[in-house]
Write a structure and sequence with these properties.
By secondary structure, the protein is α/β, with parallel strands linked by helices. The chain is about 40% helix and about 20% strand.
Length: about 325
């Protein structure tokens, strides 16, 4: 941490990047870091391959996130919440790789690709690590605290997932002390869904197939077209497959253009799905992982059925 603080103190222009299809942790961490650095008089520029989904775009400072790079001669690059550098997608083409890279992440699979690496798998989220950094260099305020809270809240599933620790709860408590309105943040993220998302959820739940200890469901392009929805509208659908009594692991397969299939895996009761994701070149956490592959949906469903049956048995 000291090396990162020294780097911040010695430089003035910081590029902040995170992974493709950014989630609440990556977005919250990026914005909080940018606000904290700017409060110190530094210049920042947030760059991602993909824009925030509607769930996060409704927050005021989401406008700080860009999907293209203007003329910004960064001195230092932060890459947040990305286990490997390829996870940042096309944003990699717009960064100057001769500049120092500070890699901050909480995934156990992190490849430590940075000039400086702060990787803490025992932390619930990258936002939890950013909190520790910012609290040492700047006075936090309600706005910074809100984006840190978004990161922790979403990556712990509202403090329901196994990565929730006493430390993450203490940090969340301290953030609320700065003025975060926890009920409002939760409402914005979890309870402000457009009708098309709810109707799509009904379609997807109809596809679910239950096995002895696991479940599999899917989202086709036709389902999305029928409801005039996007893949982002399926965020968190996978958790419904895990909420069923007796289910220890679940998968949701999302059909994309070009024969691509995006798979999200979730588990509980000590079941490890990270290794399954790794078989397809993916990764994540033991209880929450994913991957993207190319192939036939029915064939992949059969493969996952056999692999999940082996894991949970």
């Amino acid at each position: 941490m000291k090396k990162v603080i020294d780097m911040i103190n010695k430089n003035n222009k910081f590029l902040i990047i995170s992974h493709t299809n950014p989630d609440g942790d990556s977005i919250g961490s990026q914005i909080a870091l940018a606000l904290g650095l700017e409060k110190m008089g530094k210049e920042t520029y947030i760059l991602n391959q993909d824009p925030p989904t509607n769930r996060y775009a409704r927050f005021n400072r989401a406008e700080l996130i860009h999907t293209g790079k203007k003329e910004f001669d960064e001195e230092v690059i932060f890459i947040l919440d990305s286990a490997e550098i390829d996870r940042i997608g096309s944003a990699r083409d717009e960064m100057d790789l001769t500049k120092p890279v500070i890699n901050i992440d909480h995934h156990i699979s992190n490849e430590k690709f940075g000039s400086i690496n702060i990787v803490k798998p025992n932390h619930s989220s990258t936002a939890e690590i950013i909190y520790e950094l910012l609290s040492r260099i700047v006075e936090l305020d309600k706005e910074i605290a809100t984006y840190l809270y978004i990161g922790i809240l979403t990556d712990t599933g509202s403090f329901r997932y196994p990565n929730t620790t006493s430390h993450s709860l203490k940090v969340a408590s301290k953030l609320v002390d700065y003025g975060v309105v926890a009920s409002q943040v939760s409402e914005f993220i979890w309870f402000t869904d457009p009708p098309k998302r709810i109707k799509l959820l009904g379609d997807v739940l109809q596809s679910i197939k239950l096995y002895d200890n696991f479940s599999i469901m899917y989202v086709t392009r036709n389902m999305l077209k029928r409801r005039n929805a996007k893949e982002e509208d399926t965020e968190e659908f996978v958790n419904y497959g895990l909420s069923i009594e007796g289910i220890k692991a679940c998968a949701i397969i999302k059909e994309r253009e070009g024969g691509k299939l995006k798979v999200s895996l979730r588990s509980k009761n000590g079941i490890n799905v990270q290794n399954l994701a790794a078989e397809y070149g993916g990764g994540g956490h033991k209880t929450a992982s994913g991957f993207v592959t190319v192939g036939d949906l029915e064939k992949l469903k059969k493969e996952l059925t056999e692999k999940l049956d082996r894991i949970v048995s």
